[in-house]
Structures are given as structure tokens and as C-alpha cells.
Amino acid sequence: QVQLVESGGGLVQAGGSLRLSCAASERTLTMYKMGWFRQAPGKEREFVAAMRWSGGTTYYAGSVKGRFTIARGNAKNTVYLQMNSLNPEDTAVYYCAVASLGNTYDYWGQGTQVTVSS
């Protein structure tokens, strides 16, 4: 059973930064893409950023482009989300996800809370 473990969430003031990390428990897991999603209270889950594991192509939602950076970690099957210039609209539970074979995300983490105060 593949597990994705997220960490790094917390409370930060507007304008501040946080770095989220995600590690897949299965080191031999084949990954096509690894990504981050978020869900704010009362809203649907939305895409934040993703990285194609082969080649490193990155994708960002328009609302975070230029502020957030997704990057591969040094450890196998880990990914980071560096979040800068945070604003209260970024407050949400952030989820790490893996698409193992195609564009469908088939593994999800438990989520980590990010709260940005004004």
C-alpha cells in the first residue's frame, strides 16, 4: 500500500513563506507525475502545481505561478512545494498526489493545513 506523507504546513503571516514536503513510502513506485492540490473551506479541491517525473516539466495554477515552486527532493520519490508571498487566499488543506501511469492521480496524502493570517 503506497502512502504519501506530507509535512511542513502551519500558520504564517501574509507575505511569509512555507515549504511543504511529500514523500512516497514505496521507493520503487513508478511515477508519471507528482503534484499538489489544495482545498479551502467550502470550496472544491483545486490543482496547485505538478511535476512530470521524467524530464522535470512543471505546471502551475495561475493563482500561484511566480510565488510557488515545485521541486524534486534529494531523497527518492520526494517533492517539495516552496510557497512564497503567501496571502490569506492560500489558506487551505494541501494534498500531495501521485499519478503513477498517466494523468489520473491515483495516490493521495492525508493533507497538511496551511493557514495564512492577514
Q: Can you count the helices?
A: 0
**Biggest pleated-sheet summary:** 7 strands, mixed
Strand percentage: over 45%
Query: How many E-type strands?
Result: 11
Gross geometry: globular
Please mark out the parts with pLDDT under 50 across 5 or more consecutive residues, or reply none. Answer: none
The secondary-structure class comes to: mainly beta
What is the end-to-end distance? 40 Å
Question: What's the Cα radius of gyration?
Answer: 13 Å
The residue-averaged pLDDT reads 93
* Proportion in helices: under 10%
- H/E topology pattern: EEEEEEEEEEE
Describe this structure in words.
The chain has strands at residues 4-7, 10-13, 18-24, 33-39, 46-52, 58-60, 68-72, 78-83, 92-99, 107-108, 112-117. The protein is built from no helices and eleven strands. It is an all-beta fold. The radius of gyration is 13 Å and the shape is globular.
In short:
The protein is mainly beta and 118 residues long. It is built from no helices and 11 strands.
What order do the helices and strands come in, and which of them pair?
Layout (H helix, E strand, L loop, with lengths): L3 E4 L2 E4 L4 E7 L8 E7 L6 E7 L5 E3 L7 E5 L5 E6 L8 E8 L7 E2 L3 E6 L1
Parallel strand pairs: 2-11
Antiparallel strand pairs: 1-3, 3-8, 4-5, 4-9, 5-6, 7-8, 9-10, 9-11
